[in-house]
């Protein structure tokens, strides 16, 4: 894979796709699974690897168009700030979930940061922060046995109750329900 693709994944690890696009991607994943499970095909691993590469390139192509940054042109000030914002989210989220924290790190106002993210992604900065935070929390809930209290403490929530309300607000279920379900 070309280096620009791995850079893209690092910059945009979480995007929202339409229902139609998700159905097409699910179809591709099922096709890859069929090839992988076809034990009698002597080229199955090579075919599987090529299918994964094709799938990832398709993801790259479809998701990069969701952002209004044309890589062939020199990026402007807003795009530069947005990229720095994403880097900061990777570094500090989910422990830091307030727009003001990131705006201060970027030496701009919270309002200006939100207007930049709105113009590039059509989503406010708080939405992007919360999406990243929830993704990280889901990973912690799914792949660790750390107690909810310890997770809430580790992620700088005032208490477990606030953590539970935050998670439920963004997912519709409690952290415990999520852990038991997944």
Task: Explain how this protein is built.
- The model is unreliable at 68-72 (pLDDT under 50).
- The protein has two domains: 3-64; 75-182, Homeodomain-like (Arc Repressor Mutant, subunit A, Orthogonal Bundle).
- Helix 2 (19-37) runs antiparallel to helix 3 (44-64), helix 4 packs across helix 6 (110-121) and helix 5 crosses helix 6.
- The longest helix has 21 residues, at 44-64.
- It has helices spanning 3-11, 19-37, 44-64, 77-92, 99-106, 110-121, 125-143, 148-154, 160-171, 175-181.
- By secondary structure, the protein is mostly helical.
- The two termini are 31 Å apart.
- It has ten helices and no strands.
Summarize the structure.
The protein has 182 residues and is mainly alpha-helical. It has helices spanning 3-11, 19-37, 44-64, 77-92, 99-106, 110-121, 125-143, 148-154, 160-171, 175-181. The model is unreliable at 68-72 (pLDDT under 50).
Outline the fold blueprint.
Elements: H1 3-11, H2 19-37, H3 44-64, H4 77-92, H5 99-106, H6 110-121, H7 125-143, H8 148-154, H9 160-171, H10 175-181
Helix pairs in contact: 2-3, 4-5, 4-6, 5-6, 8-9
Helix content: over 70%
State the end-to-end distance: 31 Å
* Proportion of beta-strand residues: under 5%
What number of domains?
Answer: 2
Are there runs of 5+ residues with pLDDT below 50, and where?
68-72
Could you say which overall geometry the principal axes of the C-alpha atoms support?
globular
